[in-house]
Amino acid sequence: MVGPFRGVPYSFGALREVYGPLFVRCDVCRRYARLYLAEIRDTDSRTKTFSCCRGGTDGALAITEPNTETGMTDYRLDQVEGPQRHPAAVDRLSGALKPAYRLSANHYGVKAPSR
Ligand SMILES: [Zn+2]
């Protein structure tokens, strides 16, 4: 028996209550991180977006550990301490235009020709 959840509806705390541990994954890097709720427990999960701190692409909220899903077994757990928004994601979220080549170059770790 699970008692009625008394937290904020649609909050991350409510999701956590229903689904257990939450994860955020990046489908481009094929990595994911456990989502810790300390500061966002009472935040409406519909109002929050995630982005990859490595590549800056959109992250997806996952209610199961991604590498246990069919077709995602190669996803790596990549927990980052105090992740920061990738600059490309900040630009995108603030509506600023960014050169697309920078995002892809950063994302795939392409090095500029040295000379
Ligand atoms: Zn990524």
User: Could you say which small molecules are bound to this protein?
Assistant: zinc ion
Order of helices and strands: HEEEEEHH
Structural class: alpha+beta
Question: What is the number of beta strands?
Answer: 5
Count of DSSP-assigned helices: 3
User: In which range does the helix fraction lie?
Assistant: 10-25%
> Looking across the biggest beta sheet, what order are the strands in?
3-4-1-2-5
What would the principal axes of the Cα set say about the shape? Answer: globular
Largest sheet: 5 strands, mixed
Question: Approximately how much beta-strand content do the residues carry?
Answer: 15-25%
The overall pLDDT, averaged over residues, is 84
Spans of 5+ residues with little confidence (pLDDT < 50)?
none
CA-atom Rg in angstroms = 16 Å
Count of discrete domains = 1
Distance between the termini: 66 Å
Oligomeric nature of the chains: single chain
